[in-house]
User: Which sequence fits this backbone?
């Protein structure tokens, strides 16, 4: 219960908010017994003219939590038209379970409304949600910051099993918070909560098991619908203390005053940017383009900036390389994909997929081979059926390597219904580095289908756990000049998934279908490479010589910079990309991951070479006695 002190101070808080002159735009200011709308939090946690330094980064830009958060999928979780459409379809397919479906699905999409309903001992409905501005505030401030730590990491915390206390305690990442202003103005008391920086906090909703039911509505089992946390748990990243927040809430470069009231607060560090981006640029575009109809509280600029950050996140999630060689008149291309994310690629809800587009063209532009081609609607020209098997070798452009999870019924048929699904017929999503089948919770995020017998899948020189896959393309081409292009593409909402959804006759489905058809569903490009192929293979850059890998660099992979262990004063260190293009000539033994123009280089593999200072140009490879490859992270 609320303390007497808080009850006395609440009337004062309203006066202070009104006198501050702060406007939170159209963010809701509604309150309930447990929760408060994001507009109330924004009053103190956005930049204020009276305190110009508050909530601003070193460059003066607005880094406040509401400004980043409001244009994310988390802020719009309850308003997400695809989610609402899918819930309505599951209800239509299982009408006897309608109340249970809507209540369970709102646990993590409308947590404030649903939690209050369960406190009152009743189920929650989407009709009630759509009439409640507080519920429509999505995964809001006073949800995450009130989650108690006691059950985190335990099975009971998964599938929306977060616990909200009744004492209006707000957990934050800072020790000894200056708490009385928040207590006076809101009735909430800030305290330090170490769990706010842990992956287990995110796991409460990003580890979801759903019941499998038969045609009569009887539960027959359960299915791991999405398991990003369990995938991360069985990787190398926990041992490196790389949490979900490390990537999805990156730290601001300088300390930041975290509130505008009272003025002149000391800056705090680390300051976590509430970016919350994943890979769903498509649904962010749907929300942006239908903002008025959906009643979103973000402006176009918020969505555009989140989409841009989403695409940068995707570009850092994986790399792709291609190694072509001639075998008679057949071009054999070994394409390798390396997953650098902390979970499977792709992860999350099973509407998502990643695939390889491999295209071979003559200099005239004539295409002689094209696997993974797609049309204007985002559909694959081949492989768009319900189950395209995992492949180790591809011999035809009608074969496509698609990394995805495909749900199945007990009889082995493909299904898109969550409650009808009892198994995965295919799950060849590339695991994170360090993932092993017999590792922690490996059975709950297992590889399924042909990938289990592919010796190149998640296996490398160190054995299992490489976080990579290698696919060999055998292309009858004949000798001559060609351009080989390889793209790694991502789609958050695949067309065969929505085709099934559009078979349900509900108002929510009809609304989403209209929005979907009006939005371009072209795949997002994660990574790409291009190679010029002739009688003997060369690259579209100067090309790289064969060098002994005997130069020591650290750390590797690198996110902030690389040190080169050089003991030769008469040598210079040069960085090249994998096309042989000179990126940077270093004056010392440290590379800050920028090019000659001072711009941060793209994530991927780079060659660090030590050569005599009189070596001249790249055309004299014989003078390069030392080299090392470096992986640059996001």
Assistant:
């Amino acid at each position: 219960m609320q303390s007497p002190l808080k009850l006395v101070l609440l009337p004062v808080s309203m006066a202070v908010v009104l006198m501050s002159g702060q406007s939170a735009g159209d963010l809701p200011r509604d309150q309930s017994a447990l929760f408060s709308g994001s507009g109330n939090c924004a009053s103190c946690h956005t930049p204020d003219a009276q305190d110009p330094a508050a909530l601003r980064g070193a460059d003066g830009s607005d880094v406040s939590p509401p400004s980043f958060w409001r244009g994310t999928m988390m802020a719009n979780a309850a308003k997400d038209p695809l989610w609402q459409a899918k819930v309505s379809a599951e209800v239509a397919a299982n009408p006897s379970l309608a109340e249970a479906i809507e209540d369970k699905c709102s646990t993590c999409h409308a947590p404030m409304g649903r939690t209050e309903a369960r406190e009152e001992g009743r189920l929650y409905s989407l009709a009630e949600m759509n009439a409640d501005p507080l519920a429509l505030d999505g995964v809001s401030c006073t949800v995450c910051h009130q989650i108690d730590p006691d059950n985190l990491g335990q099975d009971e915390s998964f599938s929306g099993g977060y616990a909200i206390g009744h004492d209006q305690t707000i957990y934050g990442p800072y020790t000894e918070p200056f708490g009385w202003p928040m207590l006076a103005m809101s009735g909430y008391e800030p305290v330090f909560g170490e769990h706010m920086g842990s992956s287990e906090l995110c796991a409460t909703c990003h580890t979801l098991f759903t019941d499998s039911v038969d045609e009569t509505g009887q539960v027959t089992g359960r299915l791991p619908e999405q398991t990003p946390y369990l995938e991360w748990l069985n990787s190398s990243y926990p041992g490196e203390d790389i949490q979900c927040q490390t990537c999805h809430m990156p730290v601001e470069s300088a300390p930041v005053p975290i509130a505008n009231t009272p003025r002149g607060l000391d800056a705090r560090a680390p300051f976590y940017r509430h970016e919350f981006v994943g890979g769903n640029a498509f649904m962010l575009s749907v929300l942006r383009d239908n903002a008025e109809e959906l009643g979103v509280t973000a402006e176009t600029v918020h969505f555009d900036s989140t989409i841009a950050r989403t695409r940068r996140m995707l570009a850092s999630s994986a790399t792709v390389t291609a190694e072509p060689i001639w075998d008679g008149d057949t071009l054999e291309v070994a394409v390798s994909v390396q997953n650098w994310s902390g979970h499977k690629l792709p992860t999350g809800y099973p509407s998502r997929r990643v695939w390889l587009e491999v295209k071979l063209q003559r200099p005239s532009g004539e295409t002689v081979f094209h696997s993974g081609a797609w049309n204007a609607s985002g559909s694959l020209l081949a492989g768009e059926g319900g189950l395209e098997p995992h492949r180790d070798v591809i011999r035809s452009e009608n074969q496509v390597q698609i990394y995805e999870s495909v749900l199945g019924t007990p009889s082995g048929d493909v299904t898109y219904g969550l409650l009808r699904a009892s198994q995965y017929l295919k799950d060849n999503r590339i695991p994170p580095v360090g993932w092993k089948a017999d590792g922690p919770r490996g059975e709950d995020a297992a590889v399924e289908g042909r990938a289990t017998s592919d010796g190149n899948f998640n296996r490398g020189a160190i054995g299992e756990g490489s976080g990579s896959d290698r696919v060999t393309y055998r292309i009858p081409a004949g000798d001559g000049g060609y351009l080989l292009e390889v793209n790694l593409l991502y789609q958050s909402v695949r067309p065969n998934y929505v085709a099934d959804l559009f078979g349900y006759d509900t108002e929510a489905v009809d609304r989403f279908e209209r929005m979907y058809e009006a939005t371009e569903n072209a795949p997002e490009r994660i990574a790409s490479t291009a190679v010029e192929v002739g009688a003997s293979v060369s690259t579209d850059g100067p090309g790289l010589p064969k060098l002994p890998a005997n130069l020591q660099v650290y750390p590797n992979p690198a996110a902030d910079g690389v040190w080169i262990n050089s003991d030769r004063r008469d040598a210079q260190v040069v960085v090249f990309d994998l096309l042989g293009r000179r990126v940077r000539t270093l004056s010392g033994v440290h590379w800050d991951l920028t090019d000659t123009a001072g711009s941060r280089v793209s994530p991927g593999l780079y060659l660090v070479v030590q050569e005599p200072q009189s070596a001249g140009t790249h055309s004299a490879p014989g003078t390069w006695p030392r080299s090392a490859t470096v992986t640059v992270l996001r």
Summary: Residues 317-533 form one domain. The longest strand covers residues 318-327. Confidence is low (pLDDT under 50) at residues 1-25, 536-540, 544-549, 615-624. The radius of gyration is 26 Å.
